[in-house]
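Worked example 3 (structure in, sequence out).
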């Protein structure tokens, strides 16, 4: 049992390292930077010259993803096929592609007209964008103020800029959800904070159940307790 738990922790650590390394290349490319063979990103010959791994390289960049993963994966984890890991990474990295809600939501402005601090701009629709689907003018406004973009006028930047997209997700989580789960209110409180009446209080029980299932599985893989109050 101890060996199994240790292997799970080891595997999750490896996943994290690989995701960080590969996502760094993707984000750097989005910002017009080159990444050297040593893992550092920037501009100039040191980064874009010989050994450049991604971005606007002076020479054609070689795809060293397999070598990179093989380097960070210990040989004792022989049960993990490289192709399987790459598949999981691809699924996880899909989160890095700025996204928007389903087309039906485009019909909604997600505008709280009562909010005078961050008033809606005519013609703008504050529907969900980004990995955590930032919505409503009262979220876009302060997020833009803290991160450094015009959240009321140029809100589409969340759907076209990878870095800002992820910053909005982290901003929302830290300002809305983090304290809920760390204070003992439980995972269910984070569902309510993000999806509220759309899913909680009988709004969409199957969706809530799926989120709880994912959360439970991740807790199992990490070897930690789920805690109380997992539903909303």
């Amino acid at each position: 049992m101890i060996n199994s738990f240790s292997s799970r922790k080891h595997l999750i650590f490896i996943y994290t390292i690989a995701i960080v390394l590969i996502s760094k290349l993707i984000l750097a490319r989005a910002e017009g930077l080159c990444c050297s063979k040593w893992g550092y990103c920037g501009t100039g010959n040191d980064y874009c010259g010989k050994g450049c791994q991604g971005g606007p390289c002076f020479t054609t960049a070689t795809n060293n993803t397999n070598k990179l993963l093989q380097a960070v994966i210990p040989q004792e984890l022989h049960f993990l096929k490289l192709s399987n890991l790459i598949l999981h990474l691809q699924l996880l990295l899909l989160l890095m592609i700025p996204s928007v809600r389903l087309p039906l939501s485009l019909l909604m402005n997600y505008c709280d007209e009562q909010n005078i601090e961050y008033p809606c701009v005519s013609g703008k629709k504050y529907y969900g964008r980004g990995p955590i689907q930032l919505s409503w003018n009262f979220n876009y406004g302060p997020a833009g103020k803290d991160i450094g973009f015009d959240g009321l006028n140029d809100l589409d930047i969340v759907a076209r800029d990878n870095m800002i997209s992820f910053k909005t997700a982290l901003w929302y989580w830290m300002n809305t959800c983090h304290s809920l789960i760390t204070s003992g209110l439980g995972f269910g409180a984070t569902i309510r904070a993000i999806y509220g009446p759309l899913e909680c209080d009988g709004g969409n029980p199957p969706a809530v159940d799926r989120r709880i299932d994912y959360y439970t599985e991740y807790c199992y893989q990490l070897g930690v307790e789920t805690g109380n109050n997992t539903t909303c």
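Notes: Confidence is low (pLDDT under 50) at residues 1-5, 75-106. The radius of gyration is 21 Å.
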